[in-house]
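Please fill in the sequence for the structure shown.

STRUCTURE ENCODING:
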């Protein structure tokens, strides 16, 4: 099968024919139909997310189950599935608490670039290739844990459903689950790319009255408005915390979301919220980046909170998001600015880097 392999950081991906082992017990082989291009893939290429190399990228995939390993009960061949970007184990301390995104297994799988059992299913000429979050769906096929598969109705186009696997879940659930945005409240979203516009959609679903979008690119601010932002700020022209205060009766917003992954913009999010407000960090920052906050400001009882995969429960929240799409309450088709073929994946990365797209999707 063909897959997009990263051999060297900062270098283009190589689209080449590689070998994929059959599924082991509890695993399934999925024929990938489409895979969205997320900034986290780009961050792996640039070492911001340091995965072991070589690695097959991709973690926002959807496709059709073709083969199941022994003991698989959650899906069967022919099922249409979205792949969840969190390979939770279901048994550890965190899974027992229902805090799936913090699963012990997920941290291990992500860090060592393997399947949950610690081995890899991907090879090229005898060399082992690593997995990205146990998925590696920027490929024609993927062998994944059955728990990573969430079955969806056949009527949902896989070309848009794939986006729910990472960007939509991360963004919408950051607003609904992590922050628990209240109806009538105000929220600032800093960074309006593929994930940020979904934070905006989450704020809309939760009933936020004022949604302020912040981005350096005017085309992103226009997209933010189409997804429900009521106000836009370009930091190159306006002071962000000051403008946010002017739009919120001088107080600051109830919530601010950082959806870029930079210490500086995390500080900005914190500065945008009112006393007792909540700043939520969705962006994945580099390990050496730092956040500096005014220590005295904690008397204002502001909350600074992280959010991984929207603090979601994949088997509950992913079907709900698909249902919202079918009921026309969640926009998915509008997220896809461009589609690419697998051998055009480097062009898709360049389009992401230049900020030309809300989301692009590689169609296999
Ligand atoms: N927490 C999670 O579970 C999770 C999941 C997926 C993605 N992420 C992370 O979320 C972040 C966003 O991902 P994405 O796919 O939406 O990326 P993206 O590239 O599509 O969007 C980023 C946006 O930020 C804007 N931006 C960049 N620097 C800025 C600045 N200084 N001020 C204002 N705007 C700025 C860009 O113009 C762009 O619109 C990344 O860090 C990604 O790794 C986190
Ligand atoms: Zn992602
Ligand atoms: Zn677990």
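FILLED IN BY: designer on duty
SEQUENCE:
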């Amino acid at each position: 099968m063909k897959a997009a392999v990263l051999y060297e950081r900062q270098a283009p991906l190589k689209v080449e024919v590689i070998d994929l082992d059959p599924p082991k017990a509890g695993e399934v082989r999925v024929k990938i139909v489409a895979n969205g291009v997320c900034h986290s893939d780009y961050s792996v290429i640039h070492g911001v997310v340091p995965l072991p190399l070589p690695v097959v990228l991709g973690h926002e995939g959807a496709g059709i189950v073709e083969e199941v390993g022994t003991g698989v009960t959650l899906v069967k061949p022919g099922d249409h599935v979205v792949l969840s970007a969190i390979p939770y184990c279901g048994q550890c301390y965190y899974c027992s608490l229902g805090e799936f995104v913090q699963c012990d297994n997920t941290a291990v799988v992500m860090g060592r670039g393997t399947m949950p059992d610690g081995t890899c299913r991907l090879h090229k000429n005898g060399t082992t290739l690593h997995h990205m979050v146990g998925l590696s769906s920027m490929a024609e096929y993927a062998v994944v844990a059955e728990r990573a598969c969430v079955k969806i109705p056949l009527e949902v186009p896989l070309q848009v459903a794939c986006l729910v696997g990472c960007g939509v879940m991360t963004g919408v659930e950051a607003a609904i689950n992590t922050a628990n945005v209240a109806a009538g409240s105000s929220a600032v979203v800093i960074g309006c790319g593929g994930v940020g516009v979904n934070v905006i959609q989450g704020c809309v679903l939760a009933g936020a009255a004022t949604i302020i979008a912040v981005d350096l690119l005017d085309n992103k601010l226009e997209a933010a408005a189409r997804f429900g932002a009521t106000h836009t700020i370009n930091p190159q022209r306006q002071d962000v915390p000051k403008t946010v205060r002017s739009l919120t009766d001088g107080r600051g917003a109830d919530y601010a979301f950082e959806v870029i992954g930079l210490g500086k913009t995390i500080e900005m999010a914190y500065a945008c919220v009112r006393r007792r407000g909540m700043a939520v960090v969705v962006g994945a920052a580099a390990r050496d980046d730092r956040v500096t906050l005014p220590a005295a400001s904690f008397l204002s009882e502001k909350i600074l909170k992280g959010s991984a995969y929207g603090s979601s429960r994949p088997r509950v929240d992913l079907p709900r998001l698909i249902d919202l799409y079918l009921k026309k309450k969640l926009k998915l088709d509008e997220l896809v600015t461009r589609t690419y073929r697998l051998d055009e994946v480097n062009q898709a990365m360049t389009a992401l880097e230049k900020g030309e797209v809300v989301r692009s999707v590689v169609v296999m």
